[in-house]
């Protein structure tokens, strides 16, 4: 079920979304004009509507953008179910950008675990679209909590040449050091933001059953199955993905039993225009 799959993934991102919204409350505006990039299934949107009293929901206006249109459809249905009438969604990323960005328009801009999709070069534009005094909040992973278990699964298949966690981060972050607090601090300052703060926050979350944990790691598994130590055609790669998923399931069952618990370490960065 999509609901269960998305709920498990949001267990990891929702605590950080809530932290962003709590910090954003310091930016005093008569209404919320929010741009939520890499919105996914709506962790930030849900946290925002949780924070604002229901009788004031009419001051909340959110433009949620993501490259995954399936997740945006889920977010729209979630908004309809919960009465989040101030939400609109747009495809952005993956070669599309349906959001019209105007200067000095948004009071808040959030990017919850997605800034690496757009890169450091996009930060000056984010500064431009915020109103004076506007709030930027973004999060990134300081470490990859799933890496040790995927590494163990790869080794279980008899492969010893496993990319290091840093090498995997470099791939995911496209060569930019988004897992390093000093890099994030400098990147935001260089883009013209002020009052930049970067905090490290640790969370312990449920990643669901071992089966749900493996399903949630579909993309990292495909990434590693196509990399160093594995060679062959696309058909071979599909077999490798299947074998790696089965091995990871065994690892998760052995390590955790019926429920996977992960120790997360994220960077929470805030800044003002």
From TrEMBL:
Matches recorded under Pfam families: Ubie_methyltran
UniProt entry tagged with the keyword Transferase: yes
InterPro entries to which the protein is assigned, alphabetical: SAM-dependent_MTases_sf
Keywords assigned: Methyltransferase, Transferase
Any one GO molecular-function label of the UniProt entry: methyltransferase activity
GO BP of this protein: methylation
The name this protein goes by in its record: S-adenosyl-L-methionine-dependent methyltransferase
Organism: Lophiostoma macrostomum CBS 122681
